[in-house]
Design a protein that fits this description.
Helices cover about 40% and strands about 15% of the residues. It has one domain (about 10-140). It has about 150 residues and is α+β, with helices and mostly antiparallel strands. It contains 6 helices and 3 strands; from the N terminus they run H-E-E-E-H-H-H-H-H.
Length: about 150
């Protein structure tokens, strides 16, 4: 199965700019961007909330880039090019996700808090996801999954 934006030529910078413009169009009042070798961060303020979204970036020594599908070593330049293509693809995917979430809110399909809950910043600088996601395995341990439909339907 083909992955979204697998062959994109859109630069990461262009995707970042598109994300910023999308956020502004839907009413974001602030925008920040930061990066390091293993991740990038987009932050914004909207609907009386501050949101931080993290985009995981692939490691430069990942065998998906350093080796061919047959297992032969790639040249350093070729490995770098493969990694950059994957980074471009991930930025395109993030731009799509943000647009879809904001449009779902705008259309009334969902709420801002529902769409961005995991990334909402709490006092102290942690996100809701930072606090809740690690607790999920314990919450389910030894308990059956709840029914998808509420009783009485």
């Amino acid at each position: 199965m083909a992955r979204y934006a697998e062959d994109t030529s859109v630069t990461s910078d262009r995707s970042k700019t598109e994300i910023e413009h999308t956020l502004a169009r839907y009413g974001a009042s602030e925008f920040v961007y930061a990066s390091r070798s293993d991740s990038a961060l987009i932050g914004f303020t909207m609907a009386d909330r501050r949101v931080r979204l993290t985009l995981p970036l692939p490691a430069s020594d990942d065998p998906a880039f350093t080796s061919t599908p047959t297992g032969r070593a790639r040249a350093v330049a070729a490995a770098k090019s493969e990694r950059e293509a994957e980074i471009r693809r991930r930025w395109r995917a993030l731009a799509l996700v943000i647009k879809a979430k904001l449009e779902a809110v705008e259309t009334g399909i969902s709420t801002f808090d529902d769409e961005f809950l995991s990334g909402i910043l709490l006092p102290g600088g942690f996100t809701v996801g930072d606090r809740m996601i690690p607790a999920l395995p314990d919450a389910y341990q030894g308990r059956p999954l709840p029914p998808l439909l509420p009783s009485g339907l």
